[in-house]
């Protein structure tokens, strides 16, 4: 019996069938995106915010003229000569009342609107008084029966069963860095600033917290001796009971239990290679930028696996000249995104390494329309923060706006792919073979839930969880910023919350099957 073609392989005239957004549809030839001039780059975080707005609303209007982002201004002939300036007058005093705080629906209200077969939900409405600006929400940690997250000047644990607060640890200043992984026994070391000032401060205060008990442990301050080890930007990772820290262009390892410094991570080729970031989990990886004073076509990055207990270098892997490490998608197996140093936005690959750091495969997902980190870009966070891409034993799963697919780590070939016209598809967890659980995030009117896909793509679709329509507005507003999945339950938070009361958002939302 002939093999049924994948959705990408069908001609363009095969459109989705009514009521089935996952029906096969051809991709057609890739469209070359317009090259961005380097003079028009925006700061990384601002670019990420623009991207979030694009996902939320389908487009962004320019501030002037109401044109679509990137559109041309009105023709010169249509412009009118501005009137001469008038004598300035004092602005009128506003007597309008302050806008009412935005109301977040309760868990009871969401569940009251559920239909048969829909998941049960809980929502967290955090009343913490925040500065009137965008506040970053940090990594999600699942420990025991709680989910824990740091926001601004507080670390809070919520019970997975119902979203009630289990404990919180206040901090004297805002958190600026968290590792992706805690220790196996549930301890973490986060970094917060040395003051509450909006600018001019340092990210140099280390605080250990036991996530199982909610107790704060040891505290210490990172020392600085010059520009080589300043703490303006700090990256951390935990592997086993070891905390690795990169501050500026130096790196060191500390024991999580008591904060003892274990060793300085060796700097190889001093003057040419400098530690840049660290990735943790079952392995400890250190990335370094090399030949940074040379032409970009000659610069390169070097990945090293370090024995976390001794600091011994186990292997080294060097990118090809002119390319750099983007994000470490997995440390076992080692899979990372590689970026063209001269075009870090549009020219990228997925690189898979074998034993000893040997190159295994290089995957180009661009011809199918995929973008790095599931169209989410880089919000300036650590090397392991890359939403929209999940690695399994045999495949890397890549998601994004309207599509998701799996590439074989051994051959580099596309195993399966699925398109959806109304939703964004986020790989959530790799399963056996090349199958994966996928979070389907719809707009306020679209479907939402968890789906399982495998080889065969749309033909293998199985609905695992269907989220209630009554939660759709709250869920879509989170833009799948942070995701965690454990024992059939998904936890969702925004990546950024607004501190203005009139624009408040839900802090956390979770869905799970209703127990019989």
Automatic annotation (TrEMBL):
Residue segments, region Disordered: 1-38, 74-108
Amino acid composition bias (Pro residues), ranges on this chain: 82-91
TM stretches of this protein: 44-69
Domain Pyrrolo-quinoline quinone repeat: 143-265, 303-488
Sorted UniProt keywords: Membrane, Transmembrane, Transmembrane helix
Pfam families according to UniProt: PQQ_2
Keyword Ribonucleoprotein tagged: no
Keyword Iron annotated: no
Protein name: Pyrrolo-quinoline quinone repeat domain-containing protein
Source organism of the structure: Streptomyces nanshensis
């Amino acid at each position: 019996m002939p093999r049924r073609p994948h959705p990408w392989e069908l001609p363009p005239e095969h459109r989705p069938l009514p009521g089935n957004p996952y029906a096969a549809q051809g991709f057609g030839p890739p469209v070359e995106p317009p090259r961005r001039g380097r003079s028009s780059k925006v700061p990384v975080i601002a670019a990420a915010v623009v991207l979030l707005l694009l996902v939320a609303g389908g487009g962004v209007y320019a501030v002037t003229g109401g044109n679509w982002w990137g559109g041309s201004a009105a023709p010169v002939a249509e412009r009118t000569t501005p009137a001469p300036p008038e004598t300035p007058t004092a602005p009128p005093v506003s007597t309008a009342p302050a806008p009412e705080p935005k109301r977040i629906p309760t868990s009871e209200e969401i569940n009251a609107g559920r239909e048969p077969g829909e998941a049960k939900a809980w929502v967290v409405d955090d009343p913490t008084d925040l500065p009137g600006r965008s506040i970053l929400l940090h990594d999600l940690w699942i420990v025991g029966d709680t989910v824990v997250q740091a926001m601004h000047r507080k670390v809070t644990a919520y019970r997975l069963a119902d979203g009630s607060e289990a404990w919180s640890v206040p901090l004297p200043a805002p958190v600026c860095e968290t590792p992706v992984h805690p220790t196996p026994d549930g301890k973490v070391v986060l970094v917060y600033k040395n003051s509450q000032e909006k600018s001019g401060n340092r990210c140099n205060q280390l605080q250990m917290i036991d996530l199982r008990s909610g107790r704060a442990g040891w505290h210490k301050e990172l020392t600085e001796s010059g520009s080589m080890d300043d703490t303006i930007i700090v990256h951390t990772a935990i592997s086993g009971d070891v905390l690795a820290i990169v501050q500026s262009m130096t790196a060191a390892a500390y024991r999580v239990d008591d904060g003892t410094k274990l060793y300085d991570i060796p700097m190889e080729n001093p003057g040419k290679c400098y530690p840049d970031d660290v990735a943790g989990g079952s392995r400890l990886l250190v990335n370094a930028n090399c030949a940074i004073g040379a032409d970009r076509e000659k610069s390169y990055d070097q990945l090293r696996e370090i024995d976390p207990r001794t600091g011994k270098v186990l292997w080294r892997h060097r990118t090809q000249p002119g390319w750099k490490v983007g994000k470490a998608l997995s440390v076992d197996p080692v899979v990372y995104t590689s970026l063209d140093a001269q075009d870090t936005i549009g020219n990228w690959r997925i690189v898979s390494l074998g034993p000893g750091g040997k190159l295994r495969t290089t995957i180009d997902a661009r011809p199918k329309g995929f973008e790095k980190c599931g169209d989410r870009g880089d919000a300036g966070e650590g090397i392991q923060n890359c939403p929209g891409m999940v690695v399994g034993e045999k495949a890397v799963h890549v998601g994004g706006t309207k599509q998701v697919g799996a590439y074989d780590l051994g051959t580099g070939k596309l195993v399966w792919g699925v398109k959806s016209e109304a939703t964004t598809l986020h790989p959530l967890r790799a399963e056996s073979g090349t199958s994966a659980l996928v979070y389907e995030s719809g707009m306020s009117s679209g479907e939402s839930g968890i789906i399982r896909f495998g080889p065969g793509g749309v033909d293998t679709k199985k609905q695992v969880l269907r989220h209630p329509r009554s939660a759709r507005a709250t869920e879509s507003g989170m833009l799948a910023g942070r995701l965690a999945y454990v024992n059939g339950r998904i936890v969702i938070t925004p990546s950024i919350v607004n501190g203005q009361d009139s624009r408040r958002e839900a802090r956390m939302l979770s869905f799970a099957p209703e127990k019989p």
